[in-house]
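Hi F.,

I've been meaning to write this up properly since the lab meeting, where we talked about keeping a consistent format for the predictions we share between groups. The idea is simple: the sequence comes first, exactly as it goes in, then the C-alpha cells exactly as they come out, then a line or two of notes. No screenshots and no reformatting. I'm using this chain as the first example so we have something concrete to point to.
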Amino acid sequence: MRQTRLWALFAILAIVCGVCVITCCSNDDNQMATVDQPTIAHIQERGMLLVGTTGDYRPLSYREDDGTYWGFGIEVVGKIAERLGVDIEFVQTSWPTLTADVLAEPQTFDLAIGGITITDARKETMLMSEGYLANGKTILCRADEADRYQSLADINKPEVCVMVNPGGLNEKFANENLTHATIIVHQKNEEIPSQVADDHADVMITEITEAPWYVQNDPRLAAPLINAPFTHGEIGVLMRKGQDDLLAYVNVVIAQMKADGSLRRLHEKYGLVYAYE
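Output, unedited:
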C-alpha cells in the first residue's frame, strides 16, 4: 500500500512539473504556452477563473442573499484558482440550463462545480474531472414518518407526494423509478426540504451529499435511507470539450488534495463520508 501511494505521488509530481514547464515559461516561450496550454494561458492572462455554479445546493454550493458563495465545491474550486494564481468570478447557472450554459457560445465560464454527478451522458458531450466526492440518491422525509419509508417500493405509491427540482438527475431518477408516486417539480432546490418539513410534500429525492446538512439543521427532517442509497456515483468538475489542459490541471489538484489530506479535512468539515482510502 505504501509503495502504491509513493508511485501515485511520483505520478502527480511528474504531471505538475509538466504543467509548470508550460505555464511558467519565459516570454520567449509565450507562443508555445498559447499552443500547448490554451485554456490555462487564457485564464492566467485574464487573471480570473470563471466558475459556473447553481448556488442552491447546501453544503456543496450555496449563494447567500449578499452574493457570497460557500460550500464544499466552492472550497475545492478555490484551491484550483489558488494554484493557478488567479481570482474567481462566479457565474450563475441552473440545473435545467447547465449543459446549455457549458456549451454556450460565446463561452460563459471555464468550468462548473457544485453537486454535478459524473455520468456517461455528460462525458459524451463535455469533459468531467476525476471524482472528489462520493454521492448517491436518497430521500428526505419528515422525522415522524421515517419508519414509513424503508425502501423504494415504500415511496412508489400514489398517496406519496415526491418533490424534486427541475432539470437535474433528481427529476430524472424520480420519473424513471417512481412511476406510481405523485411527483411535484419545485423550481428552487433549496426550498424543497422546508416544503417537506411543512407537509407540502412527503419526500424529497436528493443526494447523500445534501441530505445530512438538512437533517443536522432541521430536526423536523430525517434521511432514513442515508446508508443505503439507491445509486452510487461521484461528483466532479464539468467543462466543455477542448479544454484538456484545464481538465488535466484540475485532476492534478484533486489528486494532490487526496494525497495531502486536505480533501479528507473538507469532508470532515462538512460532515460528509470520505471514500478515497
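Notes:
The chain has twelve helices and 15 strands.
The first helix runs from residue 2 to 23.

If this format works for you, I'll send the rest the same way.

G.
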